[in-house]
Amino acid sequence: MASGKDEKKSDVDVKQEDVMIAVLIADSFSMRFVPITIDRPKALLPIVNRTLIDYSLESLLLCGVHKTIVYCVSHADKIRHYLNNSMWTSPGSNMTVQVISHSTDSCFSLGDALRDIENKALIRTHDFILLSVDVITNVPLLPIFEKHRERKLADKNLLMTHVFRQSFPGHRSRNTEDDLALAINPVNQKVLHYLSTSKLELLGCPLDIFRTHSQVELRYDLVDTHIFICSPLVLTLFTDNFDYQTMGDLVKGILTNADIYDNSIYYHKLERCYAAQVTNVSMYDAISKDIIQRWTYPLVPDMKWDIKIPRYTLSRDNVYKQPDVKLSKGSVLETDTVVGQGTVIGETTHVTRSVIGENCKIGNNVSLSDAYIWNNVIVKDGCRIDLAILADDVVLNENVELGRGCILGPGVVIAEGTKIPANTRLMSSPMKDEFSQDDDAVAAPISAGSVAFIYQNKREEESDTESLADDTWGREVVEEEDEVEDEEEEEEEEEEEEANSDFGDADIQDEDVSAFFREVLDSMQRGFEEKVKAENLILEINSSKFAYNITMEDVNTLVLKAILSLPEVLNPDSIASFKDYVSKLKPILKHFLPILKNYIKKSVSQLECLNFLENYWIDHPKYIESVTYIMKFLYDEEIFAEENLLSWYNKSSNQTVKKHVEAFIRWLQEADEESDEE
User: Fold this and answer.
1) Which H or E element spans position 585?
2) I need a labelling partner for 421 at 20 to 30 A (CA). Which of 396, 511, 589, 656 fits?
3) If you average pLDDT over residues 90-98, what whole number do you get?
């Protein structure tokens, strides 16, 4: 017969075993949200006016989690301060929150974080929930946790339960970067094969899987929720394998080396629940819409989050407002809109599918569409915003227009009338590069009177790799070798298609290049008509270059193309011959001479532009006779060097263009011979 003391000890053990522990990784180890995450951790970014960490902790609390370990790396002090002053650490909280921090000098991935958790012995014997702070979910985790424990009784080698949800390709909340294919055993729900497909054209599955299992189910309709129920062995395996940086590395490593590890990974498919990760700004937009449209219930804007925070009221068409919101005459709040307390919206302002934070001032006749405006932002009269994020304390002066996909960091001020190109990222102070050897490089604001500087990732400065803006919006970052191959393939395709092109930009097949050319052409047209200074136009062109997937070769040739296009753009009905064209082109070339000298400097850029001119006049033969004047003008102005002109001519196989410039090239050769004789 057991003693009373033994019975009490047994009760304690049972209670300890019943404790649900979660590990919340409060860092995404990425730069997708720069520049707004330079001085602010991603965990504290607001989504529909609540921080990401609030959503994570609320979902864990609703699931019955007893203790959450919040593991911080970047800006750990700010996360700790926020939590210490929040309801999560108050005496009445039903969940214990423990904050653990680690230096950014030695923690660069999820794998590093889990190895540190193992070294600190934060998890010893308990199974635990592993969740990233940027996952928004209303999943009831307790039943999944209990099912995991039941399986563990029957399968001592159970490593973890991986949670997925069904979402077909093309759905807005499905991140294409997380596309994967799974092979599972439909009888026992074991994962047999795991393959990331975001960069694959063909999918493969080992034949051994079909030989050793009577039933195999292949799934491409599942999305990784980044929610895991883990045994403590997960931490040990990360410690033993320093090359594991992500959970995907662990899963593939276990399945590939099944004969070594003999561990089991099970999958759980969600039914009628929501889970999605805010990996990039595209997903930020999609998940915000899902929250507003109440797919994440009970995690919705009008939920009673904190007794200290005024509650939102819900109106028709998913319009949410906190108290003390002032709407002026003629202002309209349309579908899927959230407005925080203390915000004032001016007359005849139109807001749709947008989120506005607290204490913002929106002027008259403003258009906001898919805009995410944080706290204390000022948007003055006549501004136009379409799909953009404005961080705290941003100021847009009158008649500012933001292109789609812009990200404005805290404290940015945009001068009146400025047009910001699409996908531009701005910060309130210029970037500092302590390793730069270019003493003449002085960062300038995006426009006169603005406190706004372009954010550019260092890896872009000396290469033609894709801009991090593309990476931010969820596009693939192409490795250098792959990019060269892709560019060669694109050039071959363009050469085949250019012969049938018309005058204008129809020969530009790539969407980014086409958009860049249109912006450059608009800037050049305005610059010529309004006599804008060259340095200001160069700033606009450079900002567009950083915003799109544009190489310097594209910049050089498309600037030249825009100049050659302007005579017909400015005078569509008054050019009857090449002489008329040349007479209109002369003042344009002279006006933009400083811009041409800025971009066409080195021999390689000169040869690129000469090759471009050769192809351009083949496609636009109407004014081909002007090619001699253009080449001589650029030679006289020391933009084209003599040796590069001769080199291009000798290598060119296009007899039509060579015939038109033959006399000019002969003159160059004769002048060169006379110089040698002297």
Assistant:
1) helix 578-591
2) 589
3) 88
- pLDDT band for position 441 (50/70/90)? low
Write the pLDDT tens digit of every residue in 486-536: 444 444 444 444 433 333 333 434 577 888 888 888 888 888 888 888 888
Secondary structure class of 379 (helix, strand, coil): strand
**Does residue 460 surpass a pLDDT of 60?**
no
**b/e for 66-99, b at 16 or more Cβ within 10 A?**
ebbbbbbbbbbeebbebbeebbbbeeeeebebeb
Q: At what angle do helices 627-636 and 603-619 cross, to 10 degrees?
A: 160
Q: pLDDT-derived band of residue 676, with 50, 70 and 90 as boundaries?
A: low
The C-alpha atoms of residue 454 and residue 30 are separated, in whole angstroms, by: 19
The reported pLDDT for the residue numbered 24 is: 96
**Cα–Cα distance between 410 and 35 in angstroms, integer?**
9
Say if CB 605 and CB 599 are below 8 A apart: yes
pLDDT band at 166 (very low <50, low <70, confident <90, very high): confident
Classify residue 170 as left (phi > 0), alpha (psi -120 to 50) or beta. left
Question: Which of these, 130, 128, 163, lies nearest to 20 by C-alpha position?
Answer: 128
User: Of the candidates 168, 164, 174, which has an alpha carbon nearest to the alpha carbon of residue 139?
Assistant: 164
Region of 284 (left: φ > 0; alpha: ψ -120 to 50; beta: rest) is: alpha
Kindly report the backbone phi and psi dihedral angles of residue 402, in degrees, each rounded to the nearest multiple of 5, phi listed first. -105, 125
Inter-axis angle of helices 655-677 and 627-636, nearest 10:
30
Q: How many CA atoms lie within 13 A of 615 on its CB side?
A: 21
Mean pLDDT of 277-291: 92
**Three-class DSSP labels, 464-491:** CCCCHHHHHCCCCCCCHHHHHHHHHHHH
Indicate the burial class of 478 (C-beta count within 10 angstroms; 0-12, 13-18, 19 or more).
middle
Distance (Å, whole) CA 354 – CA 351:
7
Q: How far apart are CA 595 and CA 538, in angstroms?
A: 7
**Element housing 24 (H / E):** strand 21-25
Residue listed under structure tokens 């753009």: 569
Q: What is the side-by-side order of every strand in the sheet holding 67-72?
A: 96-101, 67-72, 21-25, 128-132, 222-230, 158-166, 264-269, 190-196, 180-185, 217-219
**What is d(CA 552, CA 558) in angstroms, rounded to the nearest whole number?**
10
* Its pTM surpasses 0.70: no
pLDDT digits (tens, 9 = 90+) for 382-426: 999 999 999 999 999 999 999 999 999 999 999 999 999 999 999
Angle at 246 between CA 59 and CA 389, to 5 degrees: 60
DSSP 254-296: HHHTHHHH--EEEEEE-SS--EEE--SHHHHHHHHHHHHTTTT
> For the residues 225-232, what does the mean pLDDT come to?
94
The rounded distance, in Å, linking the Cα atoms of 596 and 584 is 18
* 175 contacts 135 by C-beta, under 8 angstroms: no
Please report the pLDDT score of residue 504 as a whole number: 39
**Burial grade of 611 (CB within 10 A; 0-12, 13-18, 19 or more):** middle
| CA of residue 455 relative to chain centroid, distance | 13
Residues 6+ apart with CB under 8 A from 560: 596, 600, 609, 612, 613
User: Cα 550 to the chain's mean position, in Å?
Assistant: 16
pLDDT in tens, 532-569: 888 888 878 877 776 666 778 888 888 888 888 888 88
